[in-house]
Amino acid sequence: MNQQEHLATFIKAFSESLQDNSFVKISLGNYKGTEEQLKNIYIKRVLIKKDEKLSFTYRYKTRDIVKNFSLSEGINAVENALQEGFNIATLFTNKFDLIIEKLNQKTVLRKTDSSNPKAISLEHDKAKNRLIKPQEKPYLHELKITDEAGNVYKNAQDKYRQINHYVEILSTLIKDIPTQNHLKVADMGSGKGYLTFALYDYLTNVLKLEAAVTGVEFRPDMVALCNNIAQNTGFSTLNFVEGTIEDYDSTGTNILIALHACDTATDDAIYKGITANADLIVVAPCCHKQIRREIEKHKASNELDFLTKYGIFLERQAEMVTDGIRAMILEYFGYKTKVFQFISDAHTPKNVLVVGIKSPNAGSKREEILAKLKATKEYFGIEYHHLERLFKL
Ligand SMILES: C[S@@+](CC[C@H](N)C(=O)[O-])C[C@H]1O[C@@H](n2cnc3c(N)ncnc32)[C@H](O)[C@@H]1O
Predict the structure, then answer these.
(1) Distance in Å, CA 60 to ligand 1 centroid
(2) Is the CB of residue 293 less than 8 Å from the CB of residue 281?
(3) How far is the CA of 343 from the centre of ligand 1 (A)?
(4) For position 104, what pLDDT does the model report?
(5) 8 Å CB contact between 284 and 190
(6) What are the tens digits of pLDDT across the range 297-309?
(7) Name one GO biological process term (predicted).
(8) Alpha carbons 95 and 118: distance in angstroms, whole number
(9) Segment among 166-180, 181-195, 202-216 with least mean pLDDT
(10) Which CATH number describes the domain made up of 138-391?
(11) Which residue from 218, 222, 225, 387 has its CB within 8 A of the most atoms of ligand 1, so it is best to mutate?
């Protein structure tokens, strides 16, 4: 097959995957075209006001631009992108993955097993029975998720769904904790406060619990913005404090969450949760730089080099080792743990949730855990894990 035939096969497979609903996403990379700072394009399918669209995220060095196209425009746009500078594209479907790559003057096409066999292929905004309804929620308007009438803005559909998804997950976890009133909740690294507000709303207005919720954030602009919105919307026991996770006094906290707190900030958050003897600790880790650096220092010097010499493997090893050790340390301190993917990786690769639920029966295997921790560190050439160091284990 020549270059044009390979391209035609790829485009045909793309088009067919849209027709039979097996399409998951497309990513384009290795850009060598003329548009300055353009690096990748990521494409997913969305349903906007009942219209199926292809949503293209153009990733530049320092910003992202999102454009939505009709299906036929989107197919043409992918074809053009492959002729105008992108040298690799992967079509992910839930039947197979198809990669087209230009190497020197040749084009190769590779078909592999699907990496998303169960992925939901369609993003949609169908009116589900959401825990956080958009109407009559002034805070959602102030956070620019809805207009004044409670209609979710087109560009905030993803965020709105995400908020509800988090709250749904938390709602099932919260059912299992012993403290059911006078809850003290801390959201570490609360950022713009989307989830902090939604969780407060859910606890106090849906479950009708008494809850004091605090967002901890070191960016003063975010703290001021969130406190303003909390005040304007009458959320009297929701507040945001300016400061670091490390310095926050978490005494008495029942529920501690930290979503995408960078690198070791997640460890600081878990530490605050464990030392407060919180009933529930939920973290969505972000990057795993500390352990990545540790593994990298030793990667060429042992027989594991084949697992760490490629950037993507190193990244994944660092993630699994970091979060695996976090889960072990939670168990060491008497928490039952769960680790699961909470959102499709079509959205973000930062999609793992580490959950610790205080349990009277957990924590009996301390010696075993310490031995495993020691062996893991030796195996990967790790000098220390930040959470382990905080506890001086
Ligand atoms: C990626 S954002 C996530 C925000 C929010 N949790 C969410 O999921 O939408 C991480 C936030 O944590 C804050 N942060 C990171 N490290 C922190 C630390 N050590 N102390 C306080 N805030 C921190 C950052 O300023 C940022 O706003």
Answers:
(1) 23
(2) no
(3) 19
(4) 82
(5) no
(6) 876 566 777 877 8
(7) methylation
(8) 9
(9) 166-180
(10) 3.40.50.150
(11) 218
